[in-house]
Amino acid sequence: MSPIRAGSIGTGPRSQYPEAPRIAVGAVVLREGRVLLVQRGKPPDEDVWALPGGSVELGETMAEAVEREVLEETGVVVRAGAVVHAFDMVERDDDARVRFHYVIVNLACDYVSGEVVAGGDARAARFVARDELATLRSSRTSVELLQRITTFFEDGGNDAAARLDSHPWRK
Asked: Which of 61, 72, 89, 122 could covalently link to 102 via disulfide, CB atoms 3.0 to 4.6 Å apart?
């Protein structure tokens, strides 16, 4: 089994040692029974495979942010759907100072078009089958979310947003 890290989000230097938490989004994008993942190219969680996403910019909705981030990191066009999970990602340095703090909101997204090509702060990007997750150095939060919604993979991974809205754990 591969090592699993706590949360994951790509960032720039301005995000280190923040004065307040930053808001970020992640995308659950399914296509033909596979989930879209990126390998982070920058801290925190450099080299870790996780759901694509990033910071919400001022004036941008979460839906707009997740659609932009997926396009930037993967070249894939998506349509944002329901919020499916939210969590804190806090990383402290050796002196216990907060180095990173994100409130990350994951949204179900429907694949619209495009071929996967890594871009932005993603080192690599691809659609990953369920059994491949165990072979990747993956984000714990991404894996736990996908384990809770295993019905995603039962019918080919299409129409993610609709299935997330009706999934029992959402109630």
From this structure: 89
